[in-house]
Amino acid sequence: MKIVFIGPPGAGKGTQCGLLSEWLGVPHISTGEMLRSLDSETGGAIHLRIDRGHFAPDDFILEMVADRLSEEDCRRGYLLDGFPRTLVQAKAFDHSMERSTEQLDHVVHLIVGADELVHRLAQRSLTGARSDDSAQFIQERFRIYEERTAPLLEYYGEQGLVREVDASSSPEVVFERIRESIGADR
């Protein structure tokens, strides 16, 4: 299966992709993790953008994702976490899939209320694992998500790919909802 996960910061995309990746036996491809792992020479300017809650440039992301999807472990499918994040990325990705006669199976939209999202990000920021989870950038990340990523739901909805999933419960309950929504009984 080829699945895109969409949801605001803190919705649980990484957690759910990790669980589903293990269940389906396909790789979880997190562009955020890929970007955070860039060395300072390659990713210095990009890290500065990400640390402030902004997106990396589309052309850079498209090339990075294309390289990753060309690897052998992606032949059976993959779960995309953090890509596409803009209409430019989604349209370019669709075009590249059409050229290789592939298509997405699902777009999982994780839905969580604003108060719960802020709580989750505040909890996650306590670990210090991600600088973009700091209180000063949370609202900016939500604004950017609404402005640039949320429109993908209409784009993919017109293709009949969106699966709405209430992600406000425990990770285990959300995982069951996702499996049900995509018909992954295995």
Relevant terms:
186 residues, alpha/beta, five-stranded parallel β-sheet, 9 helices, 5 strands, 55% helix
List the helices and strands and how they pair.
Layout: E1 2-6, H1 13-24, E2 28-30, H2 31-36, H3 40-51, H4 58-69, E3 78-81, H5 87-99, E4 106-111, H6 114-126, H7 135-149, H8 151-157, E5 162-166, H9 171-182
Parallel strand pairs: 1-3, 1-4, 2-3, 4-5
In short:
The protein has 186 residues and is an alpha/beta fold. The protein has helices spanning 13-24, 31-36, 40-51, 58-69, 87-99, 114-126, 135-149, 151-157, 171-182; strands spanning 2-6, 28-30, 78-81, 106-111, 162-166.
Give an overview in words.
The protein has 186 residues and is α/β, with parallel strands linked by helices. It is built from nine helices and five strands; from the N terminus they run E-H-E-H-H-H-E-H-E-H-H-H-E-H. The chain has helices spanning 13-24, 31-36, 40-51, 58-69, 87-99, 114-126, 135-149, 151-157, 171-182; strands at 2-6, 28-30, 78-81, 106-111, 162-166. Strands 2-3-1-4-5 form a five-stranded parallel beta sheet, sandwiched between helices. Helix 1 packs across helix 9 and helix 4 runs parallel beside helix 5. It is globular, with a radius of gyration of 16 Å.
